Amino acid sequence: MKDLSILIVGGGIGGLTAAIALRRKGFAVDVIERDPDWSVYGVGIIQQGNVIRAMTELGLIDDYISAGFGFDRVQVYLPNGHCVADIPTPRLVEGYPGNVGIGRRALHKVLGDRTIGAGATVRLGLTVTQLDDDGAGVSVTFSDGSTGRYDLVIGADGLYSQTRSMVFPDAPKPEFTGQSVWRYNFKRTPDVIGLQAYEGQTGIGLVPLSDELMYMYVTTPEPGNPWYETEGLAAAMREKIANVPSTAIQALVGQITENAEVVYKPLEWQFIEGEWHKGRVVLLGDAVHATTPHLGQGAGMAIEDGLVLADELANADAIEPAFVAYRNRRFERCRYIVESSRAICFGQIGKGPLVDNAAATRDMFIKCAEPI
Questions:
Q1: Which residues pair with 71 in a beta bridge?
Q2: Sign (positive/negative) of CA torsion 190, 196, 199, 200?
Q3: Cβ–Cβ contacts within 10 Å for residue 173, how many?
Q4: Is the pTM for the entire model greater than 0.85?
Q5: What are phi and psi of 251, to 5 degrees?
Q6: Percent of the chain with pLDDT over 90
Q7: Residue by residue, what is the 3-state secondary structure of the chain?
Q8: Best label site of 17, 181, 320, 368, fewest CB within 10 Å?
Q9: Which are the contacts of 320, defined by CB distance < 8 A and separation ≥ 6?
Q10: Between β-strands 121-124 and 28-33, what pairing exists: parallel, antiparallel or unpaired?
Q11: 200: left (phi over 0), alpha (psi -120 to 50) or beta
Q12: Where are the domains positioned within the chain?
């Protein structure tokens, strides 16, 4: 199957890496993205060695590493600032770090530039309004009234996937965990040269993004999923960590001043137990296995999805067995990440037993070092 024409719905991390992987296999790829500005919010993301391995396979490694901050350790702290674990992380690619902290905008630029450079067509401000799969191909109607015909369609359109709702209208909806995350960027302090994770009901992490920049994430219980107005977000975030005894954290509290720079997000999860495709339409990333960020692997799982899907399409004689093989290769690994991340979340807010973060992190590194 070397001459397939493929539509990817969603121009985020999963959709773009899938586009790059598919172009490297020689497939014709169109990407559509709902946002006409193709924008992403400006805080960071943690990515581990399995993503560095994937970026190497995609031919992106040097651009990717240059855009972020590499590190080889994860330190776990008590709320008082006492370090209880210093975990060396495996390097899966010789000569490159075990982890990278990278700004989402920087990552988006690396992936977007390579997607276009690889020859994929990117159309912005578009959604799909109709999918007609007749068994021989998929006829697509777009939101601007235009149409297209494709051999297959990939739904990489996130947690609230429109593609999923079209092909699996009865699929379980994303579920709010009872916890939310707050994020904010700071000038990097010299001591933050790797992930510093603080345990407790209020989880906190400091992540380097570049020589100049780092970000803080804060996870907090949010019973009832309350709404926070943009006006007052900075004060609300300061209040959430005002009583954390760590002097390192308290030194940063007063710097949280700009409401518009606070990124607040309720944490939701979803895992589709059944098929991940219907006919010639298949899902990847958050559209099928959305996780909370407690193990830092949400984007990593989406990136791996794109690589595996491209492999299976290139190696199979037909689309259906390729989709089945893709799900079979991804299912248990993605379920492990979703369930393990959710367990940490539930333990923090008292909905389940408290999880040892250091042990869970070590287990994740071992699991994600395995081949995909």
A1: 99
A2: positive
A3: 11
A4: yes
A5: -65, -20
A6: 95
A7: CCCCEEEEECCCHHHHHHHHHHHHCCCEEEEEECCCCCCCCCCEEEEEHHHHHHHHHCCCHHHHHHCCEEECEEEEECCCCCEEEEEECCCCCCCCCCEEEEEHHHHHHHHHHHHHHCCCEEEECCCEEEEEECCCCEEEEECCCCEEEECEEEECCCCCCHHHHHHCCCCCCCEEEEEEEEEEEEECCCCCCCEEEECCCCEEEEEECCCCEEEEEEEEECCCCCCCCCCCHHHHHHHHCCCCCCHHHHHHHCCCCCHHHCEEEEEEEEECCCCCEECCEEECCHHHHECCHHHCCHHHHHHHHHHHHHHHHHHCCCHHHHHHHHHHHHHHHHHHHHHHHHHHHHHHCCCCCCCCHHHHHHHHHHHHHCCC
A8: 320
A9: none
A10: parallel
A11: left
A12: 5-174+268-369
Token readout for 220 is 């907090």
Q: Which CATH architecture has domain 5-174+268-369?
A: 3-Layer(bba) Sandwich (3.50)
pLDDT number for residue 41 = 85
Q: What pLDDT shows up at residue 1?
A: 73
